[in-house]
Design a protein that fits this description.
Elements lengths: L5 E18 L4 E14 L4 E7 L3 H18 L6 H11 L7 H22 L3 H4 L7 E5 L8 H13 L4 E5 L5 H14 L5 E5 L6 H11 L6 E3 L7 H10 L4 E3 L6 H10 L4 E2 L8 H15 L9 H9 L7 E3 L12 E3 L2 E3 L12 H7 L3
Parallel strand pairs: 4-10, 5-6, 6-7, 7-8, 8-9
Antiparallel strand pairs: 1-2, 2-3, 4-12, 11-12
Helix pairs in contact: 1-3, 2-3, 3-10, 5-6, 7-8, 9-10
């Protein structure tokens, strides 16, 4: 057998503090429930990844699924494609979607980390590119706050070394959203970009009115104004607006992305490492974006996404959140508005054992 084989897969649920609660049109998040994945191989290399689970109950379910997946993979080659085939067959009757799809993505990312470590290369180099600075925007906050509060927080986020920040929209009235956008845009220097995310808050009719009202307010993009799978409606909206429309965090795999791109559902695209199918799914998505000539950003998972964007032909922006930082030995570095991918072998994830024990969920 060539290359390492899977010896075991561990899953550890943690609940991590967030420096700033995130209030969106959907819910408010004050702590980050995650599952840390350790894929141990027979050659002594451990591949790591994590999954952001949104809810504590889901994190516990994911732990059970990861452990089941690990038992099925024990003794098999730690090869991403082979592991996906095995697990897709294992979960076929349940369906590879939702938490099951997340687990496959997490295992895939851990396999790629193990392969990169075994090769002695950063993940970006294993994928054929050199790690390089990636433009990043600060997404650690700017929830649905009053205008003055959101403007003050925007200044704090930019002062952390960023030339771009993202705010959330979807307040009860269009007037309130407009006031918040004007407060943020007015507080920040002109060179600092402001992205805005509705988190699917609007009907198509409401989106047409609200987004047109924001068209001349200096936003860099308007993200997910309508339901994520209404590709036709989103395409009509994107064609009608001067401000670019961003979407993609909810694309369930490269096939969904291909459909979205074909319909022109957004001007930009931003896959999520989990939902797009791990590193393998990201590679397929990056090829689709390249063929379509669409700028591609990331959603969450900044440590691994920085490696992947370095190897993405149409790389655009990295969404920076520091939610995993409390359990990382070396959090992702930011300098001069860019994320600096780790030059160490692998994807750059190493757990701080003491912090993991402290934040572990029962």
């Amino acid at each position: 057998m060539n290359g390492p084989a899977v010896r075991s897969v561990e899953a550890t649920p943690v609940l991590l503090p967030m420096r700033r609660p995130l209030g969106t049109s959907v819910s408010s998040i004050g702590e980050a429930p995650m599952v840390l994945i350790d894929l141990h191989t027979d050659e002594g290399v451990t591949g790591r990844s994590y999954l952001f689970c949104y809810a504590e109950a889901l994190a516990h379910a994911v732990v059970t699924l990861v452990r089941d997946a690990g038992a099925r993979l024990a003794g098999d080659p730690a090869e991403p494609a082979a592991c996906r085939r095995t697990l897709s067959s294992h979960f076929k009757l349940v369906g590879v979607r939702g938490p099951v799809a997340s687990v496959l993505a997490g295992v895939d990312a851990a396999c790629w980390d193990a392969l990169a470590q075994a090769a002695g290369l950063p993940l970006a180099r294993l994928l054929g590119a050199a790690p390089r600075p990636v433009p990043a925007y600060n997404s650690n906050g700017l929830g649905l706050l009053p205008p003055q509060a959101v403007a003050d927080e925007a200044l704090e986020l930019a002062a952390e070394g960023f030339s771009a920040v993202k705010m959330r929209l979807g307040r009860p009235s269009a007037r309130d959203d407009l006031a918040a956008v004007r407060a943020v845009r007015g507080a920040l220097p002109e060179h600092v970009a402001v992205m805005a995310d509705f988190n699917q808050a609007l009907s198509l009719a409401d989106a047409q009115d609200r987004c047109r009202a924001l068209d001349d307010e200096g936003l860099y993009w308007i993200e997910e104004p309508v339901r994520h799978d209404d590709y036709e409606g989103a395409a009509r909206l994107a064609a009608a607006l001067r401000t670019p429309v961003q979407a993609g965090e909810n694309l369930a795999g490269p096939r969904a992305m291909a459909h979205s791109l074909r319909l022109g559902a957004s001007d930009y695209v931003m896959p999520d490492l989990d939902r797009i199918g791990g590193v393998s799914g990201w590679r397929d998505a990056a090829a689709l974006a390249d063929v379509s000539g669409v700028p591609m950003s990331s959603h969450l998972y900044p440590e691994v996404s920085a490696q992947l964007l370095a190897a993405t032909p149409t790389a655009h922006w990295l969404e920076y959140v520091d939610w995993a930082a409390p359990v990382l030995e070396t959090p992702l570095r930011i300098a001069e508005g860019c994320a600096l991918p780790s030059e160490a072998p692998g994807s750059g994830l190493r757990w701080d054992a003491g912090a993991v024990a402290h934040h572990r969920m029962d």
